[in-house]
Amino acid sequence: MRRSGxxxxxxxxxxxxxxxxxxxxxxxxxxxxxxxxxxxxxxxKEEGEEDEDKGRRTRIKRRxxxxxxxxxxxxxxxxxxxxxxxRRRTxxIRxRRRTxxxxRRRxxx
Length: 109
Description:
Layout: H1 2-15, H2 19-47, H3 50-64, H4 68-108
Helix pairs in contact: 2-3
């Protein structure tokens, strides 16, 4: 819920920059983050932990679009992600049910 609003603000801020500058900024931001993840993956491979490596490979995509401010918050959120997703799912289901009931009422009258 809250995250969607924040991304919308960030997207609006990004729109003010010219497309060339935006592309440059995105390329720069990904390269540093990806380099770190690649180094970590290489270290894992040397130790012979293949399974953990596979798990981390899926996480790289999430690591791409992060600013300096949100990085600290995001690190802590990784631990809570499973719990949060479960809570969010229940919220979405509840909301869907509520909208269905209200629609039915409107249709009846």
